[in-house]
Amino acid sequence: MKILKKDFKVKEYVCMEGSWGNTPSESRTMEYHVEWNKEDESGWYEIYDEESGGEDYHGEGCLEFDGNELCGYDGVMSLSDEVIKCIVEWGGIDNL
């Protein structure tokens, strides 16, 4: 079984956003965990801020693949650029 996995941290500006608008951006260290199980064409991701242990900022969801191409995701309105970078590095997105 081939599983690709990456755990890393990135210092970035984040905010909460919804139909009501958004909160002011603030600098946080975000922890990322991304995994792709190539055998069953599935994956997942989790993102949270280190400072609060995910109490202030947290997102997670599934990744869906058709062969070696990302075809869908769930859990957030738009997939994080950092998660997309992982999938591009692994060859799961060609058309960016």
Helix content, binned percent: under 10%
* Cα distance spanning the termini: 28 Å
Structural class: mainly beta
Average of per-residue pLDDT values = 92
Shape from CA axes?
globular
Radius of gyration: 14 Å
Total helical elements = 1
Count of discrete structural domains: 1
Strand order of the largest sheet: 1-4-5-6-7
Low-confidence stretches: none
Largest sheet: 5 strands, antiparallel
Total number of β-strand segments? 7
Question: What is the fold's blueprint, element by element?
Answer:
Layout: E1 3-14, E2 17-18, E3 21-22, E4 26-37, E5 42-49, E6 58-66, E7 69-73, H1 81-89
Antiparallel strand pairs: 1-4, 2-3, 4-5, 5-6, 6-7
For the structure shown, list the relevant keywords:
96 residues, mainly beta, five-stranded antiparallel sheet, two-stranded antiparallel ribbon, 1 helix, 52% strand, globular
Give an account of the 3D structure.
The chain has 96 residues and is mostly beta strands. The radius of gyration is 14 Å and the shape is globular. It starts with a strand and ends in a 7-residue tail after the last helix. The chain is built from one helix and seven strands. The strands form two sheets. A five-stranded antiparallel β-sheet has the order 1-4-5-6-7, covered by helices on one side. It is 9% helix and 52% strand. The model has no long low-confidence stretch (mean pLDDT 92).
